[in-house]
Amino acid sequence: MIADGVLAVVSLCCAAWLWQGGGIRQKHGALGLVLVAVAAAIGSARYGGMPLEALHVRASHVASAIGVPMIGGAYVAWTPKTLRNAAVTVMLMGLLLMENADYRLGAGALAMVLVLVPRQPIGAVGALLTIFAGLGIGTNGDWGGIARLDLFHYTLSVANICLAVGLSKLPSDALRA
Predict the structure, then answer these.
(1) What does pLDDT average to over the chain?
(2) Largest CA distance in the chain
(3) Whole-model pTM?
(4) Residue 177 forms part of a structural domain
């Protein structure tokens, strides 16, 4: 419950910061962070005792199938038309395939590879932490007496800070005309 709340607050604060001070690529990443924040906030309420399991699962699928790819995609210099088309494609594919765990894993991994394109070091740390959270920590069982789900959320919190800082350092006008 606390770890979900931390992830929700961190993601929402990062999104607001990027939205307020950035251009279109930062806003694109901010929208992805908002989807993560919504899923985490619902998770916090769920683990706090509210009967929201189905909604939390659905929101988590949306965050991983659409939100994470939006964050990674924001790191690439797109033309405005290409960015729009890519965003629509990610959203449609995410909506159609979000129940498929392999799609969510693949979309998230590809998105984090996109973070490496502009060679922004702090963004790369965020990408690696995101990959480590999903593949190394996971969400089932415990690790050293700490629930893996909590470690997963705390790691994603740090990763999202790194991704937001890295994205903020990229030119907001990196979109080619």
Answers:
(1) 89
(2) 53
(3) 0.90
(4) no
